[in-house]
Design goal:
The protein is α/β, with parallel strands linked by helices. It has helices at residues 9-14, 21-31, 35-57, 62-65, 75-82, 116-128, 145-148, 152-160, and strands at 2-3, 18-19, 90-92, 103-108, 135-140, 164-171, 174-178. Strands 3-4-5-6-7 form a five-stranded mixed sheet, with helices on both faces. Strands 1-2 form a two-stranded antiparallel sheet. β4, α6 and β5 (135-140) form a beta-alpha-beta unit.
């Protein structure tokens, strides 16, 4: 038997008693990032970097390029790059009906509605894939505290049903996981990660 005395919500419940190996593996699974999520983040970062660099590569000022007709962001290329990960996760948004997998990846980049990704994740987990869904990963280029904090109760309610919602804020130069409620917070989050990983392409 293994004693565990961490600081997150789940470990507080387990403090003071021995863990079985299965329980320990469950705790590890809750805090670690699956390789396909790391690959997804890497692909999203690469797409972001290409998007930022494209105007300069064409001899244009990036700010001026935003107002040019040819300066549209190629979001279809991003989702094309992410399609290979659909063997592991339901990718949302999508032109096809999701398979109903345990892991879901909601990509919310270049969105005018800042809370759209979180709302989509909650709707999908609570309504459209409630039977199978266990983890929902939201990867976004934007986090607005005032727009997302009122979903904290929804996040906690999903967690009580065994569905974990995790929010990752990504930039071309790094990423960080941000908890969407106080109960969901852990030391694993708030760590800025700037290492670039290969995408296997």
């Amino acid at each position: 038997m293994i004693y565990f005395g961490g600081s997150d919500k789940n470990s507080k419940k387990r403090m003071g008693h021995d863990l079985t190996v299965n329980e320990l593996l469950s705790v590890i699974e809750e805090t670690e990032y699956p390789q396909y999520i790391l690959d997804a983040i890497s692909r999203i970062q690469a797409w972001m970097l290409d998007t930022v660099s494209a105007p300069a590569d064409q001899g244009m000022d990036p700010v001026t390029a935003m107002f040019e007709d040819g300066g549209e962001i190629d979001i279809e290329k991003l989702f094309s790059d992410l399609e290979c990960l659909e063997q592991y996760v339901d990718l949302i948004p999508n032109t096809r009906r999701p398979e109903g997998r345990a892991d879901v990846l909601v990509v919310s980049v270049n969105a005018s509605d800042y809370e759209c990704g979180v709302r989509t994740a909650i709707d999908y987990a609570a309504l459209f894939n409630r039977e199978n869904c266990k983890r929902v990963w939201v990867v976004s280029d934007t986090f607005v505290f005032g727009d997302t904090i009122h979903y904290a109760a929804h996040v906690n309610a999903l967690a009580e049903q065994g569905i974990v919602l995790r929010f990752i804020l990504a930039t071309p130069w790094g990423w960080v996981e941000i908890p969407l409620s106080g109960e969901a917070a852990s030391a694993q989050q708030f760590l800025w990660r700037s290492e670039m990983r290969g995408t296997g392409k």
